[in-house]
Amino acid sequence: MNQSKSQSSPLFQIILSAFILSSCQYNPLSSEPAPLPSLPAPPKPSPSKPSESSPSFQTCKSSDQEFQCLALKIVSYEDSGTPSVLGKIQAETLTNEINKVWSQCKIGFQIERYESVNPLTLGLQYNPEWRSQAGKVRSTFSDNNSLLVVATGKLTSSTIAVTQMPGYGPFGVLVEDSFANNPLTVGHELGHYMGLYHFRNSSNLMNPYIGTYTENLTPSQCQIARATNQREWVQMMR
Ligand SMILES: [Zn+2]
């Protein structure tokens, strides 16, 4: 999925900015939805990296046996002379806000790994050209036991975020700096991560235009997300 900046004129964007933060396309390679599998599950990378779990992050584990608690790995870009796009405390606040939205589906997230990195030291660009580089970014940071969110500099063109849906990896959300701490933007992208397509309803989290009140999810969407987690992301569940 990729979320796009408004195509409106600058003046109009200012007027609408409180209501329309972004739009989103969900397939990074075309404007049409990629078919959901039916495709074979992607191969899981075998070597597991050393744990960098931080006990300081809150858990989403629940006594409710139905609750799905998923591990997140958050990577935040930093540049010499600029602070990290998404600080550690901001990342925790963001996750708490995302959890409020996703609680209606009995789904939550907990940060297990947080890294602030200078992408230049890894051969990556601070402002990635996402069509050609999103796969490389995901390959660089993804692991086999957490969902990946990478807060980058500006993504090219009108895109503000892009997420690889279930099917073929590497997987991960890329979200650019000015939207990286927006729980409805990142929560929307996690919806794509969990197999949800856009749903045109002005109060729905998966509405392609994300605004102040786009925070609802339908029972059907919850069912799809939960089933996707059971099918694709069992290793990410805690
Ligand atoms: Zn989207």
List the helices and strands and how they pair.
Layout (H helix, E strand, L loop, with lengths): L1 E3 L5 H7 L5 E4 L42 E10 L10 H15 L4 E11 L12 H12 L5 E6 L6 E5 L9 E4 L6 H11 L15 E2 L8 H14 L6
Bound molecules: zinc ion (ZN).
The site of zinc ion (ZN) has 8 residues, from helix 4.
Overview of the molecule:
With 238 residues, the protein is of the alpha/beta class. It has one domain: Collagenase (Catalytic Domain), CATH 3.40.390.10. Helices cover 25% and strands 19% of the residues. The protein contains 5 helices and 8 strands; from the N terminus they run βαββαβαβββαβα. Strands 4-3-5-7-6-1-2-8 form an 8-stranded mixed sheet, with helices on both faces. Helix 2 packs across helix 4. The longest helix has 15 residues. The radius of gyration is 17 Å and the shape is globular. The site of zinc ion has 8 residues, from helix 4.
